[in-house]
Amino acid sequence: MSLQAMTYLVVGLTFALYLGIAFWARAGSTKEFYVAGGGVHPVLNGMATGADWMSAASFISMAGLIGYMGYGGALFLMGWTGGYVLLAMLLAPYLRKFGKFTVPDFFKARYYSNTATVVAVICLLVASTTYIIGQMTGVGVAFSRFLGVSSDMGVIIGMGIVFVYAVFGGMKGITYTQVAQYCVLILAYTIPAIFISFQLTGNPLPQLGLGAQFSGSDMHLLTKLDHIVNDLGFGKYTTAVPGSKLNMFVYTVSLMIGTAGLPHVIIRFFTVPKVKDARSSAGWALVFIALLYTTAPAVAAMARLNLHDTINTAVKSGGDVFAEDASIKYDSRPAWMQRWEVTGLLKFEDKNGDGRIQYYNDKSSNAEFLAKADAAGWKGSELTVNNDIMVLANPEIAKLPNWVIALVAAGGLAAALSTAAGLLLAIASAISHDLLKNMMMKDLTEKGELMAGRIAMSVALVGAGYLGMNPPDFAAGTVAIAFGLAASSIFPALMMGIFSKTMNRQGAVAGMIAGLVVTMFYVFAHTGIFYIKGTEYYQMFGGKDFFFGISPNAFGAIGAVINFAVAFAVKNMTPPVPHHIAEMVESVRIPKGAGDAVAGH
Protein backbone atom coordinates (compact mmCIF):
# COMPACT_ATOMS: atom_id res chain seq x y z
CA MET A 1 0.00 0.00 0.00
CA SER A 2 1.33 3.47 -0.88
CA LEU A 3 2.34 5.91 1.82
CA GLN A 4 -0.53 8.25 0.94
CA ALA A 5 -3.14 5.48 1.12
CA MET A 6 -1.68 4.10 4.34
CA THR A 7 -1.75 7.57 5.90
CA TYR A 8 -5.38 8.11 4.96
CA LEU A 9 -6.25 4.70 6.41
CA VAL A 10 -4.45 5.14 9.75
CA VAL A 11 -5.52 8.75 10.29
CA GLY A 12 -9.08 7.90 9.22
CA LEU A 13 -9.29 5.03 11.70
CA THR A 14 -8.08 7.23 14.58
CA PHE A 15 -10.57 9.96 13.68
CA ALA A 16 -13.37 7.37 13.58
CA LEU A 17 -12.31 6.23 17.06
CA TYR A 18 -12.42 9.80 18.42
CA LEU A 19 -15.84 10.48 16.93
CA GLY A 20 -17.23 7.17 18.23
CA ILE A 21 -16.05 7.98 21.75
CA ALA A 22 -17.51 11.48 21.45
CA PHE A 23 -20.92 10.08 20.57
CA TRP A 24 -20.78 7.67 23.51
CA ALA A 25 -19.54 10.26 26.03
CA ARG A 26 -21.54 13.34 25.08
CA ALA A 27 -22.35 15.63 28.01
CA GLY A 28 -25.92 15.93 29.28
CA SER A 29 -25.38 18.35 32.18
CA THR A 30 -23.14 21.25 33.15
CA LYS A 31 -21.27 19.01 35.61
CA GLU A 32 -20.47 16.58 32.79
CA PHE A 33 -19.60 19.47 30.45
CA TYR A 34 -17.22 21.21 32.87
CA VAL A 35 -15.74 18.38 35.02
CA ALA A 36 -16.85 15.14 33.30
CA GLY A 37 -19.25 14.44 36.17
CA GLY A 38 -16.43 14.53 38.73
CA GLY A 39 -15.98 10.75 38.67
CA VAL A 40 -13.03 10.05 36.35
CA HIS A 41 -10.65 7.33 37.60
CA PRO A 42 -7.19 8.71 38.54
CA VAL A 43 -5.35 6.46 36.05
CA LEU A 44 -7.62 7.50 33.19
CA ASN A 45 -7.39 11.12 34.29
CA GLY A 46 -3.61 10.82 34.37
CA MET A 47 -3.63 9.47 30.82
CA ALA A 48 -6.02 12.20 29.64
CA THR A 49 -3.85 14.81 31.39
CA GLY A 50 -0.83 13.44 29.58
CA ALA A 51 -2.58 13.86 26.23
CA ASP A 52 -3.86 17.30 27.24
CA TRP A 53 -0.34 18.30 28.19
CA MET A 54 1.65 16.68 25.37
CA SER A 55 0.66 19.14 22.71
CA ALA A 56 2.02 19.72 19.23
CA ALA A 57 4.90 21.44 21.02
CA SER A 58 5.86 18.26 22.90
CA PHE A 59 5.21 15.83 20.06
CA ILE A 60 6.29 17.83 17.02
CA SER A 61 8.55 20.64 18.23
CA MET A 62 10.39 19.56 21.37
CA ALA A 63 12.73 17.00 19.85
CA GLY A 64 13.44 19.40 16.99
CA LEU A 65 14.34 22.13 19.47
CA ILE A 66 16.60 19.79 21.43
CA GLY A 67 18.10 18.48 18.18
CA TYR A 68 19.28 21.96 17.22
CA MET A 69 19.94 23.37 20.69
CA GLY A 70 21.77 20.29 21.93
CA TYR A 71 22.44 20.10 25.66
CA GLY A 72 20.71 23.44 26.23
CA GLY A 73 17.45 21.97 24.96
CA ALA A 74 17.24 20.10 28.26
CA LEU A 75 15.57 23.22 29.67
CA PHE A 76 12.31 22.10 28.01
CA LEU A 77 12.52 18.68 29.64
CA MET A 78 13.40 20.11 33.06
CA GLY A 79 10.92 22.97 32.87
CA TRP A 80 7.88 21.09 31.66
CA THR A 81 8.44 17.99 33.79
CA GLY A 82 9.40 20.02 36.86
CA GLY A 83 6.22 22.02 36.45
CA TYR A 84 4.18 18.88 36.87
CA VAL A 85 5.94 18.16 40.14
CA LEU A 86 4.93 21.63 41.35
CA LEU A 87 1.39 21.04 40.16
CA ALA A 88 1.11 17.67 41.91
CA MET A 89 2.64 18.87 45.19
CA LEU A 90 1.44 22.45 45.56
CA LEU A 91 -1.76 22.95 43.58
CA ALA A 92 -3.74 19.92 42.40
CA PRO A 93 -4.97 18.49 45.74
CA TYR A 94 -5.81 21.89 47.21
CA LEU A 95 -7.70 23.10 44.17
CA ARG A 96 -9.67 19.84 44.10
CA LYS A 97 -10.43 20.29 47.80
CA PHE A 98 -11.82 23.70 46.97
CA GLY A 99 -14.44 21.99 44.76
CA LYS A 100 -14.86 24.52 41.94
CA PHE A 101 -15.31 24.16 38.19
CA THR A 102 -12.69 26.59 36.93
CA VAL A 103 -9.66 28.65 37.90
CA PRO A 104 -11.59 31.98 37.82
CA ASP A 105 -14.22 30.24 39.97
CA PHE A 106 -11.53 29.67 42.59
CA PHE A 107 -10.39 33.28 42.32
CA LYS A 108 -13.90 34.63 42.84
CA ALA A 109 -14.40 32.69 46.08
CA ARG A 110 -10.86 33.08 47.42
CA TYR A 111 -10.47 36.76 46.58
CA TYR A 112 -14.15 37.61 47.24
CA SER A 113 -14.30 39.84 44.18
CA ASN A 114 -15.85 39.99 40.72
CA THR A 115 -12.88 42.09 39.67
CA ALA A 116 -10.54 39.22 40.52
CA THR A 117 -12.72 36.93 38.40
CA VAL A 118 -12.60 39.27 35.40
CA VAL A 119 -8.83 39.72 35.66
CA ALA A 120 -8.36 35.95 35.97
CA VAL A 121 -10.55 35.39 32.91
CA ILE A 122 -8.49 37.93 30.92
CA CYS A 123 -5.23 36.24 31.98
CA LEU A 124 -6.69 32.83 31.10
CA LEU A 125 -7.91 33.99 27.69
CA VAL A 126 -4.58 35.62 26.80
CA ALA A 127 -2.50 32.57 27.80
CA SER A 128 -4.89 30.00 26.30
CA THR A 129 -5.41 31.89 23.04
CA THR A 130 -1.66 32.30 22.60
CA TYR A 131 -1.13 28.61 23.28
CA ILE A 132 -3.85 27.41 20.92
CA ILE A 133 -2.30 29.19 17.93
CA GLY A 134 0.57 26.71 17.99
CA GLN A 135 -1.79 23.73 18.19
CA MET A 136 -3.88 24.74 15.18
CA THR A 137 -0.75 25.61 13.20
CA GLY A 138 0.63 22.15 14.04
CA VAL A 139 -2.59 20.56 12.76
CA GLY A 140 -2.17 22.44 9.48
CA VAL A 141 1.47 21.34 9.12
CA ALA A 142 0.66 17.67 9.71
CA PHE A 143 -2.30 17.67 7.33
CA SER A 144 -0.49 19.54 4.57
CA ARG A 145 2.42 17.11 4.54
CA PHE A 146 0.74 13.77 5.08
CA LEU A 147 -2.74 14.15 3.61
CA GLY A 148 -1.86 16.22 0.58
CA VAL A 149 -4.15 19.15 1.40
CA SER A 150 -3.32 22.78 2.04
CA SER A 151 -2.39 23.91 5.52
CA ASP A 152 -5.57 25.97 5.76
CA MET A 153 -7.73 23.02 4.73
CA GLY A 154 -5.92 20.92 7.32
CA VAL A 155 -6.87 23.42 10.02
CA ILE A 156 -10.51 23.36 8.87
CA ILE A 157 -10.64 19.55 8.99
CA GLY A 158 -9.09 19.60 12.47
CA MET A 159 -11.68 22.16 13.57
CA GLY A 160 -14.45 19.86 12.40
CA ILE A 161 -13.13 16.89 14.39
CA VAL A 162 -12.67 18.97 17.55
CA PHE A 163 -16.13 20.49 17.12
CA VAL A 164 -17.81 17.10 17.29
CA TYR A 165 -16.12 15.67 20.37
CA ALA A 166 -15.37 18.88 22.32
CA VAL A 167 -18.43 21.05 21.71
CA PHE A 168 -20.94 18.24 22.18
CA GLY A 169 -19.00 16.16 24.68
CA GLY A 170 -17.51 18.91 26.85
CA MET A 171 -15.06 17.67 29.48
CA LYS A 172 -16.67 14.23 29.48
CA GLY A 173 -16.17 13.74 25.75
CA ILE A 174 -12.74 15.36 25.82
CA THR A 175 -11.53 13.19 28.70
CA TYR A 176 -12.27 9.83 27.14
CA THR A 177 -11.19 10.99 23.69
CA GLN A 178 -7.89 12.14 25.20
CA VAL A 179 -7.33 8.68 26.68
CA ALA A 180 -7.52 7.27 23.13
CA GLN A 181 -5.37 10.12 21.80
CA TYR A 182 -2.71 9.41 24.40
CA CYS A 183 -2.50 5.78 23.26
CA VAL A 184 -2.15 6.90 19.64
CA LEU A 185 0.46 9.57 20.27
CA ILE A 186 2.66 7.52 22.59
CA LEU A 187 2.73 4.60 20.14
CA ALA A 188 3.43 7.02 17.29
CA TYR A 189 6.35 8.54 19.19
CA THR A 190 8.01 5.44 20.64
CA ILE A 191 7.66 2.89 17.80
CA PRO A 192 9.74 4.91 15.28
CA ALA A 193 12.23 5.69 18.06
CA ILE A 194 12.66 1.96 18.73
CA PHE A 195 13.21 1.24 15.02
CA ILE A 196 15.76 4.04 14.60
CA SER A 197 17.61 3.28 17.84
CA PHE A 198 18.02 -0.32 16.70
CA GLN A 199 19.22 0.84 13.26
CA LEU A 200 21.85 3.20 14.65
CA THR A 201 23.05 1.38 17.78
CA GLY A 202 21.64 -2.15 17.79
CA ASN A 203 19.81 -1.27 21.03
CA PRO A 204 16.00 -1.16 20.71
CA LEU A 205 15.51 1.08 23.78
CA PRO A 206 16.02 4.69 22.66
CA GLN A 207 16.82 5.81 26.21
CA LEU A 208 19.77 3.38 26.27
CA GLY A 209 20.59 3.79 22.58
CA LEU A 210 21.35 7.47 23.17
CA GLY A 211 24.40 6.48 25.21
CA ALA A 212 25.28 3.37 23.20
CA GLN A 213 28.01 2.78 20.64
CA PHE A 214 27.22 3.79 17.06
CA SER A 215 26.84 0.73 14.81
CA GLY A 216 29.89 0.04 12.68
CA SER A 217 32.01 2.52 14.57
CA ASP A 218 34.22 2.64 17.63
CA MET A 219 32.48 5.87 18.70
CA HIS A 220 29.45 6.33 20.87
CA LEU A 221 26.46 7.91 19.15
CA LEU A 222 26.76 11.26 20.94
CA THR A 223 30.52 11.39 20.31
CA LYS A 224 29.95 10.86 16.59
CA LEU A 225 27.25 13.52 16.54
CA ASP A 226 29.61 15.93 18.32
CA HIS A 227 32.26 15.34 15.63
CA ILE A 228 29.78 15.85 12.80
CA VAL A 229 28.23 19.10 14.00
CA ASN A 230 31.64 20.44 15.02
CA ASP A 231 33.04 19.68 11.55
CA LEU A 232 30.17 21.66 10.04
CA GLY A 233 30.72 24.72 12.22
CA PHE A 234 27.98 24.09 14.77
CA GLY A 235 28.58 24.06 18.54
CA LYS A 236 29.21 20.72 20.20
CA TYR A 237 25.91 18.94 20.71
CA THR A 238 26.67 17.75 24.25
CA THR A 239 27.81 21.13 25.60
CA ALA A 240 25.87 23.77 23.66
CA VAL A 241 23.95 26.28 25.78
CA PRO A 242 21.60 28.75 24.06
CA GLY A 243 22.33 32.29 25.13
CA SER A 244 23.58 32.82 28.67
CA LYS A 245 23.36 30.46 31.62
CA LEU A 246 21.15 33.07 33.32
CA ASN A 247 18.73 32.94 30.41
CA MET A 248 18.70 29.13 30.52
CA PHE A 249 17.97 29.16 34.26
CA VAL A 250 15.20 31.77 34.00
CA TYR A 251 13.72 30.00 30.96
CA THR A 252 13.54 26.73 32.90
CA VAL A 253 11.85 28.39 35.87
CA SER A 254 9.38 30.14 33.57
CA LEU A 255 8.39 26.84 31.96
CA MET A 256 8.05 25.18 35.37
CA ILE A 257 5.74 27.70 36.97
CA GLY A 258 3.97 28.28 33.66
CA THR A 259 3.15 24.57 33.53
CA ALA A 260 1.68 24.73 37.02
CA GLY A 261 -0.40 27.76 36.04
CA LEU A 262 -1.92 26.60 32.75
CA PRO A 263 -5.72 26.63 33.19
CA HIS A 264 -6.49 23.79 30.77
CA VAL A 265 -4.19 21.49 32.77
CA ILE A 266 -5.45 22.59 36.18
CA ILE A 267 -9.12 21.93 35.37
CA ARG A 268 -8.28 18.28 34.72
CA PHE A 269 -7.87 17.81 38.47
CA PHE A 270 -11.45 18.95 39.10
CA THR A 271 -12.70 15.81 37.33
CA VAL A 272 -11.66 13.21 39.94
CA PRO A 273 -13.86 12.12 42.89
CA LYS A 274 -11.57 12.92 45.85
CA VAL A 275 -8.61 15.04 46.91
CA LYS A 276 -6.21 12.10 47.07
CA ASP A 277 -7.31 11.17 43.54
CA ALA A 278 -6.12 14.58 42.33
CA ARG A 279 -2.62 13.90 43.67
CA SER A 280 -2.74 10.34 42.37
CA SER A 281 -3.79 11.39 38.88
CA ALA A 282 -0.97 13.96 38.81
CA GLY A 283 1.45 11.14 39.64
CA TRP A 284 0.03 8.94 36.89
CA ALA A 285 0.27 11.85 34.46
CA LEU A 286 3.98 12.11 35.26
CA VAL A 287 4.42 8.42 34.49
CA PHE A 288 2.61 8.68 31.17
CA ILE A 289 4.42 11.88 30.23
CA ALA A 290 7.79 10.36 31.16
CA LEU A 291 7.36 7.70 28.46
CA LEU A 292 7.58 10.43 25.83
CA TYR A 293 9.91 12.83 27.64
CA THR A 294 12.61 10.24 28.31
CA THR A 295 12.44 9.21 24.65
CA ALA A 296 12.67 12.77 23.29
CA PRO A 297 16.44 13.29 23.82
CA ALA A 298 17.19 10.11 21.86
CA VAL A 299 14.77 11.10 19.08
CA ALA A 300 16.42 14.53 18.91
CA ALA A 301 19.99 13.25 18.64
CA MET A 302 19.15 10.47 16.21
CA ALA A 303 17.09 12.76 13.98
CA ARG A 304 19.95 15.29 13.81
CA LEU A 305 22.43 12.51 12.99
CA ASN A 306 20.16 11.02 10.32
CA LEU A 307 19.62 14.43 8.72
CA HIS A 308 23.34 15.09 8.30
CA ASP A 309 23.89 11.52 7.18
CA THR A 310 21.33 11.99 4.40
CA ILE A 311 22.49 15.42 3.26
CA ASN A 312 26.25 15.00 3.60
CA THR A 313 27.88 11.87 2.20
CA ALA A 314 31.13 12.65 3.99
CA VAL A 315 29.31 12.30 7.30
CA LYS A 316 28.57 8.67 6.55
CA SER A 317 32.04 7.85 5.29
CA GLY A 318 33.81 9.84 7.97
CA GLY A 319 35.60 11.85 5.30
CA ASP A 320 36.43 15.51 4.91
CA VAL A 321 33.28 17.64 4.77
CA PHE A 322 34.99 19.95 2.30
CA ALA A 323 35.71 17.11 -0.13
CA GLU A 324 34.13 17.08 -3.59
CA ASP A 325 31.62 14.41 -2.58
CA ALA A 326 30.71 16.20 0.63
CA SER A 327 27.17 16.93 -0.59
CA ILE A 328 24.77 15.01 -2.74
CA LYS A 329 23.62 16.51 -6.02
CA TYR A 330 20.47 18.56 -5.81
CA ASP A 331 18.83 16.66 -8.65
CA SER A 332 19.42 13.37 -6.80
CA ARG A 333 18.29 14.59 -3.41
CA PRO A 334 16.37 12.06 -1.27
CA ALA A 335 12.65 11.57 -1.87
CA TRP A 336 11.83 12.69 1.67
CA MET A 337 13.42 16.08 0.92
CA GLN A 338 11.34 16.53 -2.20
CA ARG A 339 8.17 15.74 -0.25
CA TRP A 340 8.95 18.16 2.56
CA GLU A 341 10.02 20.98 0.23
CA VAL A 342 6.39 21.19 -0.89
CA THR A 343 5.38 22.29 2.63
CA GLY A 344 7.84 25.18 2.66
CA LEU A 345 9.33 23.95 5.94
CA LEU A 346 12.47 22.77 4.17
CA LYS A 347 14.09 24.98 1.53
CA PHE A 348 17.13 24.66 -0.74
CA GLU A 349 18.86 27.60 -2.44
CA ASP A 350 21.89 26.81 -4.62
CA LYS A 351 23.92 29.89 -3.70
CA ASN A 352 27.14 28.89 -5.50
CA GLY A 353 25.53 27.17 -8.48
CA ASP A 354 27.37 23.86 -8.08
CA GLY A 355 24.21 21.74 -7.88
CA ARG A 356 25.16 20.33 -4.47
CA ILE A 357 23.77 21.00 -1.02
CA GLN A 358 26.03 22.80 1.45
CA TYR A 359 24.46 22.60 4.90
CA TYR A 360 26.63 24.15 7.59
CA ASN A 361 26.79 26.98 10.12
CA ASP A 362 27.72 30.00 8.04
CA LYS A 363 27.46 32.18 11.14
CA SER A 364 30.06 30.20 13.06
CA SER A 365 32.46 32.10 15.30
CA ASN A 366 35.27 29.81 14.10
CA ALA A 367 37.18 31.96 11.60
CA GLU A 368 39.35 29.03 10.48
CA PHE A 369 36.32 26.95 9.60
CA LEU A 370 34.68 29.81 7.67
CA ALA A 371 37.93 30.37 5.75
CA LYS A 372 37.97 26.71 4.71
CA ALA A 373 34.34 26.91 3.64
CA ASP A 374 35.08 30.00 1.54
CA ALA A 375 38.12 28.30 -0.01
CA ALA A 376 35.93 25.30 -0.91
CA GLY A 377 33.63 27.61 -2.85
CA TRP A 378 30.80 27.63 -0.35
CA LYS A 379 28.77 30.84 -0.41
CA GLY A 380 26.60 30.27 2.64
CA SER A 381 24.42 27.49 4.00
CA GLU A 382 21.96 26.44 1.30
CA LEU A 383 19.48 24.40 3.30
CA THR A 384 16.87 25.81 5.68
CA VAL A 385 15.29 23.22 7.97
CA ASN A 386 12.36 24.10 10.22
CA ASN A 387 12.76 22.45 13.63
CA ASP A 388 9.16 21.29 13.54
CA ILE A 389 9.78 18.74 10.79
CA MET A 390 12.39 16.69 12.67
CA VAL A 391 10.02 14.27 14.42
CA LEU A 392 7.59 14.00 11.51
CA ALA A 393 10.32 13.58 8.88
CA ASN A 394 12.65 11.33 10.89
CA PRO A 395 10.88 8.04 10.00
CA GLU A 396 11.02 9.01 6.32
CA ILE A 397 14.71 9.92 6.57
CA ALA A 398 15.38 6.55 8.22
CA LYS A 399 13.35 4.77 5.48
CA LEU A 400 10.98 3.10 7.93
CA PRO A 401 7.88 1.19 6.72
CA ASN A 402 4.95 3.24 5.46
CA TRP A 403 2.71 2.17 8.35
CA VAL A 404 5.18 3.69 10.83
CA ILE A 405 5.27 6.97 8.92
CA ALA A 406 1.46 7.00 8.81
CA LEU A 407 1.32 6.31 12.55
CA VAL A 408 3.54 9.34 13.20
CA ALA A 409 1.14 11.53 11.23
CA ALA A 410 -1.76 10.24 13.34
CA GLY A 411 0.24 10.86 16.53
CA GLY A 412 1.08 14.43 15.63
CA LEU A 413 -2.57 15.16 14.93
CA ALA A 414 -3.66 13.46 18.16
CA ALA A 415 -1.23 15.60 20.18
CA ALA A 416 -2.37 18.87 18.60
CA LEU A 417 -6.10 18.09 18.71
CA SER A 418 -6.08 16.84 22.33
CA THR A 419 -4.47 20.01 23.66
CA ALA A 420 -6.60 22.25 21.44
CA ALA A 421 -9.73 20.65 22.91
CA GLY A 422 -8.55 21.21 26.47
CA LEU A 423 -7.72 24.84 25.75
CA LEU A 424 -11.09 25.42 24.09
CA LEU A 425 -12.89 24.04 27.14
CA ALA A 426 -10.89 26.33 29.44
CA ILE A 427 -11.81 29.32 27.27
CA ALA A 428 -15.49 28.33 26.97
CA SER A 429 -15.94 27.63 30.68
CA ALA A 430 -14.38 30.98 31.57
CA ILE A 431 -16.92 32.75 29.38
CA SER A 432 -20.07 30.71 30.00
CA HIS A 433 -19.58 29.77 33.66
CA ASP A 434 -17.44 32.54 35.15
CA LEU A 435 -18.71 35.56 33.24
CA LEU A 436 -22.27 34.66 32.24
CA LYS A 437 -23.52 32.34 34.99
CA ASN A 438 -21.62 33.76 37.95
CA MET A 439 -21.69 37.46 37.08
CA MET A 440 -23.94 38.65 34.25
CA MET A 441 -26.86 36.17 34.15
CA LYS A 442 -27.08 34.59 37.59
CA ASP A 443 -30.57 33.21 36.94
CA LEU A 444 -29.38 31.28 33.87
CA THR A 445 -30.75 27.73 33.91
CA GLU A 446 -28.50 24.68 33.69
CA LYS A 447 -29.77 24.01 30.17
CA GLY A 448 -29.07 27.61 29.21
CA GLU A 449 -25.60 27.48 30.68
CA LEU A 450 -24.85 24.26 28.82
CA MET A 451 -25.95 25.88 25.56
CA ALA A 452 -23.91 29.00 26.34
CA GLY A 453 -20.85 26.82 26.96
CA ARG A 454 -21.26 25.11 23.59
CA ILE A 455 -21.76 28.40 21.77
CA ALA A 456 -18.72 29.91 23.50
CA MET A 457 -16.60 26.90 22.55
CA SER A 458 -17.81 27.06 18.94
CA VAL A 459 -16.89 30.74 18.69
CA ALA A 460 -13.53 30.07 20.33
CA LEU A 461 -12.91 27.22 17.88
CA VAL A 462 -13.55 29.48 14.89
CA GLY A 463 -11.21 32.10 16.36
CA ALA A 464 -8.53 29.48 17.04
CA GLY A 465 -8.83 28.19 13.48
CA TYR A 466 -8.43 31.69 12.07
CA LEU A 467 -5.34 32.33 14.19
CA GLY A 468 -3.94 28.94 13.20
CA MET A 469 -4.29 29.89 9.52
CA ASN A 470 -3.11 33.48 10.06
CA PRO A 471 -0.70 33.40 13.04
CA PRO A 472 0.42 36.86 14.22
CA ASP A 473 4.06 37.85 13.82
CA PHE A 474 4.89 37.21 17.47
CA ALA A 475 3.60 33.63 17.23
CA ALA A 476 6.97 32.07 16.35
CA GLY A 477 7.40 31.21 20.02
CA THR A 478 3.73 31.10 20.94
CA VAL A 479 3.87 28.02 23.12
CA ALA A 480 6.74 29.26 25.28
CA ILE A 481 5.17 32.73 25.46
CA ALA A 482 1.91 31.17 26.64
CA PHE A 483 3.79 29.52 29.49
CA GLY A 484 5.37 32.85 30.34
CA LEU A 485 1.99 34.56 30.46
CA ALA A 486 0.55 31.85 32.74
CA ALA A 487 3.67 31.99 34.90
CA SER A 488 3.52 35.75 35.35
CA SER A 489 -0.21 36.10 35.98
CA ILE A 490 -2.04 32.95 37.12
CA PHE A 491 0.54 30.89 39.04
CA PRO A 492 1.48 33.54 41.67
CA ALA A 493 -2.20 34.29 42.39
CA LEU A 494 -2.94 30.58 42.83
CA MET A 495 0.01 30.09 45.17
CA MET A 496 -0.87 33.12 47.28
CA GLY A 497 -4.52 32.10 47.30
CA ILE A 498 -3.66 28.69 48.77
CA PHE A 499 -0.67 29.41 51.02
CA SER A 500 -1.20 32.99 52.20
CA LYS A 501 -4.10 33.64 54.56
CA THR A 502 -3.34 37.35 54.49
CA MET A 503 -3.37 37.98 50.73
CA ASN A 504 -6.34 40.19 49.93
CA ARG A 505 -8.20 40.88 46.71
CA GLN A 506 -6.49 44.22 46.04
CA GLY A 507 -3.04 42.65 46.20
CA ALA A 508 -3.96 39.65 44.05
CA VAL A 509 -5.60 41.77 41.34
CA ALA A 510 -2.74 44.28 41.25
CA GLY A 511 -0.18 41.48 41.10
CA MET A 512 -1.92 39.68 38.22
CA ILE A 513 -2.25 42.87 36.20
CA ALA A 514 1.37 43.87 36.82
CA GLY A 515 2.77 40.45 35.94
CA LEU A 516 0.70 40.12 32.76
CA VAL A 517 1.32 43.67 31.51
CA VAL A 518 5.07 43.61 32.13
CA THR A 519 5.48 40.23 30.44
CA MET A 520 3.39 41.16 27.41
CA PHE A 521 5.22 44.47 27.14
CA TYR A 522 8.57 42.69 27.10
CA VAL A 523 7.38 40.23 24.45
CA PHE A 524 6.35 43.01 22.09
CA ALA A 525 9.21 45.33 23.07
CA HIS A 526 11.67 42.57 22.16
CA THR A 527 11.68 43.93 18.61
CA GLY A 528 12.14 47.47 19.93
CA ILE A 529 9.78 50.33 20.73
CA PHE A 530 9.58 53.03 18.08
CA TYR A 531 8.10 56.48 17.67
CA ILE A 532 7.45 58.56 14.56
CA LYS A 533 8.89 62.01 13.98
CA GLY A 534 7.78 63.42 10.68
CA THR A 535 8.22 60.55 8.23
CA GLU A 536 11.08 58.85 10.10
CA TYR A 537 10.96 56.01 12.65
CA TYR A 538 13.18 56.29 15.72
CA GLN A 539 13.87 53.51 18.23
CA MET A 540 13.30 54.59 21.82
CA PHE A 541 14.66 51.43 23.43
CA GLY A 542 14.44 47.71 23.18
CA GLY A 543 15.94 45.35 20.70
CA LYS A 544 17.10 41.82 21.22
CA ASP A 545 16.93 40.50 24.81
CA PHE A 546 17.53 43.93 26.35
CA PHE A 547 16.90 42.85 29.95
CA PHE A 548 20.12 41.09 31.00
CA GLY A 549 20.04 38.98 27.85
CA ILE A 550 16.77 37.26 28.86
CA SER A 551 14.67 36.13 25.88
CA PRO A 552 10.94 36.98 25.78
CA ASN A 553 10.05 33.28 26.02
CA ALA A 554 11.88 33.16 29.35
CA PHE A 555 10.56 36.41 30.82
CA GLY A 556 7.57 34.82 32.56
CA ALA A 557 9.69 34.06 35.62
CA ILE A 558 10.62 37.75 35.93
CA GLY A 559 6.96 38.65 35.50
CA ALA A 560 6.08 36.24 38.32
CA VAL A 561 8.56 37.93 40.66
CA ILE A 562 7.00 41.29 39.81
CA ASN A 563 3.55 39.80 40.43
CA PHE A 564 4.52 38.60 43.92
CA ALA A 565 6.27 41.89 44.77
CA VAL A 566 3.38 44.10 43.67
CA ALA A 567 0.78 41.85 45.34
CA PHE A 568 2.45 41.95 48.76
CA ALA A 569 3.20 45.67 48.49
CA VAL A 570 -0.44 46.50 47.69
CA LYS A 571 -1.68 44.04 50.32
CA ASN A 572 0.25 45.91 53.01
CA MET A 573 -1.37 49.21 52.01
CA THR A 574 -4.99 48.01 51.81
CA PRO A 575 -7.59 46.54 54.22
CA PRO A 576 -6.85 43.04 55.55
CA VAL A 577 -8.52 39.92 54.23
CA PRO A 578 -11.88 39.10 55.90
CA HIS A 579 -11.69 36.61 58.76
CA HIS A 580 -13.96 34.03 57.10
CA ILE A 581 -11.72 33.99 54.00
CA ALA A 582 -8.65 33.34 56.15
CA GLU A 583 -10.47 30.46 57.83
CA MET A 584 -11.50 29.07 54.44
CA VAL A 585 -7.88 29.12 53.25
CA GLU A 586 -6.82 27.27 56.39
CA SER A 587 -9.49 24.60 55.84
CA VAL A 588 -8.50 24.12 52.20
CA ARG A 589 -4.93 23.34 53.23
CA ILE A 590 -6.03 20.49 55.50
CA PRO A 591 -5.37 17.39 53.34
CA LYS A 592 -8.54 15.45 54.02
CA GLY A 593 -12.08 15.46 52.71
CA ALA A 594 -13.24 16.68 49.36
CA GLY A 595 -15.77 19.21 48.20
CA ASP A 596 -17.97 18.24 45.29
CA ALA A 597 -17.82 20.42 42.18
CA VAL A 598 -21.43 21.49 41.86
CA ALA A 599 -23.08 24.19 39.87
CA GLY A 600 -23.95 27.41 41.64
CA HIS A 601 -21.91 28.90 44.46
SSE inventory with pairings:
Elements: H1 3-24, H2 30-35, H3 42-53, H4 56-69, H5 74-98, H6 103-110, H7 114-146, H8 151-167, H9 170-201, H10 206-209, H11 221-231, H12 245-260, H13 263-266, H14 275-293, H15 296-311, H16 313-317, H17 335-341, E1 346-348, H18 367-375, E2 383-385, H19 389-397, H20 402-440, H21 446-469, H22 478-499, H23 505-525, E3 529-533, E4 536-541, H24 556-571, H25 579-588
Antiparallel strand pairs: 1-2, 3-4
Helix pairs in contact: 1-8, 1-9, 1-20, 3-9, 3-14, 4-15, 4-19, 4-20, 5-12, 5-14, 6-7, 7-8, 7-20, 7-21, 7-22, 7-23, 8-20, 8-21, 9-20, 11-15, 12-22, 12-24, 15-19, 19-20, 20-21, 22-23, 22-24, 23-24
Jot down its keywords:
two-stranded antiparallel ribbon; 67% helix; mainly alpha; single chain; Sodium/glucose cotransporter; disordered C terminus; 601 residues; globular
Q: What is the string of helix and strand elements?
A: HHHHHHHHHHHHHHHHHEHEHHHHHEEHH
Q: How much of the residues is beta strand, in percent?
A: under 5%
Describe the largest sheet. Answer: 2 strands, antiparallel
- CATH homologous group name of the domain at 3-211 and 220-303 and 397-472: Sodium/glucose cotransporter
- What radius of gyration results from the CA coordinates? 25 Å
Question: What is the straight-line distance between the termini?
Answer: 57 Å
